[in-house]
Amino acid sequence: MLVGDIMERDITSLSEETTLMEAISTMAIHETSGFPVLNNEGRIAGFLSEKDVLNAIIPGYLGHMDDNFRMPDLGKIKAMIKRVGNDPARDYMIKDCITFDEHETLSNAVMIFFRKKIRRAPVTRDGMLIGIVDREKIIRQLVQDKFKDDEA
Length: 152
Fold this sequence. Notes:
The chain is α/β, with parallel strands linked by helices and about 150 residues long. The protein is about 40% helix and about 20% strand. A 3-stranded mixed β-sheet has the order 1-2-3. The chain has a 3-stranded mixed β-sheet with strand order 4-5-6. Helix 5 packs across helix 6.
């Protein structure tokens, strides 16, 4: 089975100019952890994830997740969101994001998802965005395929 067989075709994407606040709202509305970011020509310029948003709001957050780390109080977090909320997505997105061609096998894709520690990735055809695939959906499909094989 291929990535293109299970990808989501109804894709929401952000532009490089989308503000961080708009990106946060879009993530909340769509209940998802990240989106492809497109340039003016409609090509993938990067990917903005919830992890990138957290790093923008609380710089160094991910590097300090040890037993001694203390989250700032809600008031400070709101102030930090206000400080970076109008910044464009291009300032925080991963520019060299991982993408999958629609013909990539699911087994290859799942290895990349785990090696690179990502949850979602854009799917392309001839360099253009045509879908999105996530780790959960790939694993679910692999498990379903395994049970089908066992029944046969």
